[in-house]
Amino acid sequence: MAGTDDAGLQSAGVGEPTPARGVSNTANAGDTAGEGDNSGAARTPTAADASVASISTAASTPAAHAPSTPSGLSAVSDAIAALTVTDATREATVAQLNADEESSSLLDDGKHTLPFVTRLYGGLVMLLGVCTIPLIIYELTYGIRQVLDGKVTIDALALPFILSCVEVVVLIANAACMAVFGVQLLRSHRRHAARWAYALMPLTLAHGMLSLALEGFGANLLGPFVQMTILIALSVTLDPALLQERQLQWHLKRMDDHDAYTKAVSEDMLGRDQSGKGYISLDYFNIFWLFVVGCVVGLIIETIYHFVLVHEYQDRAGLLWGPFSPIYGCGAVILTVCLNRLWRKNPVLIFFASAVIGGAFEFFVSWFMEAAFGITAWDYTGQWLSIGGRTSGKYMAFWGLLGLAWIKFVLPYLLRLINRIPWKIRYSLTAMCTVLMLVDIVMTLMALDCWYSRVSGVPQNAPVTQFFAEHFNDAYMQHRFQTMTIDPSKSGRMA
Known about the structure:
About 70% of the residues lie in helices and about 0% in strands. The chain is mostly helical and about 500 residues long. The protein has 3 domains: about 1-35 and about 40-105, no CATH class; about 115-240, no CATH class; about 270-490, no CATH class. Strands 1-2 form a two-stranded antiparallel ribbon. α1 packs antiparallel against α2 and α3 (about 45-60) runs antiparallel to α4 (about 70-105). The protein is flat and about 75 Å long. About 30% of the residues are buried.
């Protein structure tokens, strides 16, 4: 840092005015920040390197103009301050993180005994968890025997049955975690107990939501509510440093992510595959926004194509809410992942690869919708190279052209577009939109299942099915999904 300070003072006209001397000292500062350049090892630039670079730029200003331009001194001072703050912040965060871990380890040695009431609760929780698992297994085995003996009939793909299976899995996981959580409380292992409390929270929430969907609002929600309240209280009081430690770790990760972001921007490689093997970096941020754009653009293209072909407008959306067609979103993601390392290859190879990938994906989606819900959304029977009416040679050629245009022309511009989302909101915006998209997808699947059940004549007794029958009835579903028809006899469900 001393070399950097000397360089900054010299570039501002303080000390020796020789330009070469200032540049030399700045270079030495860069070597110091890089922890020595004699080894020849490559090092990933960070925000600190960016600050050193800005000092170097300021130092390269001709010394003859430095005394008459105070802005030179100001620029160097700002760069030095930014570098110092960045390093100091990172070092302080790491030091605080180490201190919190040491403090927590001292509390977690079993010598700092928890209050008797807490340990008593731990013993009860452990017993409850240990006894619950055999009971669940017994009831599950009894139910399977009833089905095999023909005393009970079930629809294996009906929403209530699926939710019941998920609830069984959640209850087993919850019981196992409760048993371990109780042991940690009995042994006064504060840190481990706090971690298990955090792990139990989403399981308790899932149990409550599943119980609400299957049994409605009533006394069945009392247990999950009480358990969640106790878990929140214990997670705060058992090891207060654990929450602060996680916050510090999150801040450190944000610093590293920002360094990588700044480096990519400076090299004009934002969103690109840094290894050079593929074109795009297959991280969640890129994949999610490619999916969203594919959903919207695919819907627009299909709507225009249908209008030009039959001269009528038809709503061809694939989700309950929003202008989204998930088959095109998934297609965009699959083509990107599969063709990412072929972007430099011959266009003919990309065309045929896209045609095969797109045709196989279209065939699978058609089969799944028919097997799961008895839904037919398209039928290519009688067309050239038709494969079971689920795909055809014409549409495989369309997928080939779409994949070629996507990789060669659309993806570069689209990548620059989605990476224009500012750093300050890119992750929070992506997380929020992910939650909204997941809710839309899950609600759509549940609404389709309930629609199938109503058409099949299945009684809608569960609260969740009654909710969908009231808010998403047959008329609503037929108007929303105008390309879909349901025929329960085509489904692969087993009663």
